[in-house]
Amino acid sequence: DSERQRMFMEAMAYLSLYYREQEGFAGFIPRMARIHDEIMQTGTYWQGEKELAHGARVAWRNNSRCIGRLHWNSLAVRDMRHVQTAEEIYEALVEHIRVATNGGKIRSTISIFAPQVPGEPGIRIWNPQLIRYAGYRQPNGLLIGDPTQEELSEVARQLGWKGGPGTPFDVLPLIIQMPHQQPMLFELPHDVILEVPLTHPEYAWFEDLGLKWHALPVISNMRLEVGGVSYTAAPFNGWYMGTEIGARNLGDVERYNLLPIIAEKMGLKTRLDRELWKDRALVELNVAVLSSFTQHGVTIIDHHTAARQFIHHQRNEEEAGRVLPADWSWIVPPMSGSVTPVFHVPYKDCTLAPNFFPQQDPWK
Amino acid sequence: DSERQRMFMEAMAYLSLYYREQEGFAGFIPRMARIHDEIMQTGTYWQGEKELAHGARVAWRNNSRCIGRLHWNSLAVRDMRHVQTAEEIYEALVEHIRVATNGGKIRSTISIFAPQVPGEPGIRIWNPQLIRYAGYRQPNGLLIGDPTQEELSEVARQLGWKGGPGTPFDVLPLIIQMPHQQPMLFELPHDVILEVPLTHPEYAWFEDLGLKWHALPVISNMRLEVGGVSYTAAPFNGWYMGTEIGARNLGDVERYNLLPIIAEKMGLKTRLDRELWKDRALVELNVAVLSSFTQHGVTIIDHHTAARQFIHHQRNEEEAGRVLPADWSWIVPPMSGSVTPVFHVPYKDCTLAPNFFPQQDPWK
Ligand code: HEM
Ligand code: HEM
Fold first, then answer.
1. Any catalytic annotation for residue B66?
2. Whose C-alpha lies nearest to ligand 1, atom 38?
3. What does each C-alpha distance from B268 to A21, A134, A306, A334 come to in angstroms?
4. Ligand 1: distance of its center to the CA of A48 in Å?
């Protein structure tokens, strides 16, 4: 039928890339013949470990929004397709956090769980990232924690979560759902989550704000597609670029919204926008993030270095004769845009496979 | 023929907008009948003063790249279509600068010269802006002034310009070309060009850098198209948004590249990108620009206020039932992007007429 047809076409497109880049063309034809038979019999096919690993790396290379792609070929791939239960997935995720955190020397890592059976629901991790802070709406209307996690925090409660201690930085439990089953809740062990308390190299008062952030960003709600096969649970991490924490997570008005308080502590008047108090506070918050991570031996990259690495990646891809799909509005950092070299490049975008794709939140 | 056909269709599209927005539908049919006759006889048509003025305002309103569009309806339109010679154009441009500068209280103004005759070259002002600083390549390879003006400075020399005194801020002569004629050079009178010396509210040494910038940004190389008619010389100005000077003109590596020297004077170490010395210097340079302009009574807007005004404009346009074409990468300011509300809006872009369009540099 046409589903199998499509699967075979996608398999062919990816396998030809895989053989071209990794194996040379010799094995391609017999492999495609086997895949063809398998798809005709089962509607899908089982990828070899090396096929899958390269597919995950190329998915990263192809993702238009990621500025960190220079390192695409060094992604550590954990083949977890044999794992059968939510409990085992939970254990594998804890292990992912442990090996990827690596005491602060962060390793780019992906854990790939069993693929979606065509026409059936796939395994889902409900959390957008493995480590995220809860957001609690107070009776007085104010919000404690991360406003973007308010909904998931509420969903977790309805699934039986008792809630955390009520700080602005309570780590959410994991919610894992196997196909055709109810979602299950799991608390992450505290000792596996590396966090960095934020201090500022010049402002002693900064420490008293009691801010911190977790070391490891593991995106856990995207679908990895390789050769027509969908991995709906395939959490991956790199290391942070400083602005993700300092500009967006802690700075955005709709997130922790910390610029007004930092500006005030800096002694800036916050009445007139044209005195650029937001810009000044933004820079110092980002200085705090970068220096605190560095001080604690946790890998992080500043947006200038990341942008330069991306320009390097751009040259690599050009030399390899590949197009570089890039979404300018995501590649240019959210602060000091025109100071980074990527601002001045008119990137073209397109959607290549393999890739990572957003999925609908499962509770919606 | 098909040229006249196209002209008539464009005229109809614009005039129907003009009558809808300005006059009510009563006069539309007889006006279109007259335009039809005129196009059939001459290949083009002469727009009424009010038709032209509204067209210029709508061209501004339609330009996807401009963050200043809240004020579109208050554009002052100078109808200069009767002007016949390069000398008279020069005089009109000097007068434009004078009335638009208005002693510092800048008035958004456009001067519209005679339209292009279809199939013939149009009047051209070779300068990208009426006021721009020359760029001189030194024998030692270094560049004095504005690197983006190096080529035009050289072109001016070949047309007989003697060159300025050799400072980094020598105002370029105007180069005006009438259809089928040679381009002509005109020096702008010094007293008409308002400039702002840059100081910093806290750093006394800033003044000693000897920086300044001109008060008035008059874009002079774009084509205004209204109702199918092309005005190839129609220079327009608003007031500056601070980042245009502080982030781009003075900050870009390919422009005045001042961040390293400012950072050094601020006592910052400039060895490590992750200490964000560029970001800190960028903010202070922009503080200097905004405060110096304000101090000298010259209209300027900071990027926070401009972004807020644009959100206001967005609401206005929605209420008016119009689409808002916007190019996100131009609307989001080049510094502190995510701190401004426009960063968080996924703008859609499209090209509406009337509009301003880029033109090829005439010497190329
Ligand atoms: C190695 C260090 C890495 C850095 C510094 C980095 C940096 C970034 C940044 C700054 C973003 C934008 C995030 C945002 O604004 O929300 C991003 C997005 C993204 N990155 Fe990376 N990244 C890294 C590793 C990885 C890895 C290992 C993968 C996958 C294997 C990956 C895949 C993606 C994807 C799919 C997105 C888009 C997310 C979305 O659409 O919401 N990145 N990256
Ligand atoms: C009133 C104050 C104004 C402000 C604050 C403003 C602000 C801006 C800014 C920041 C840009 C981007 C410039 C760049 O990055 O190179 C821009 C572009 C533009 N603006 Fe405005 N503007 C104003 C008035 C006007 C007026 C009066 C017009 C025309 C009647 C206009 C038409 C345009 C056009 C056509 C562009 C795009 C230029 C290009 O494509 O290179 N603006 N504006």
1. yes
2. A65
3. 46, 38, 21, 23
4. 25
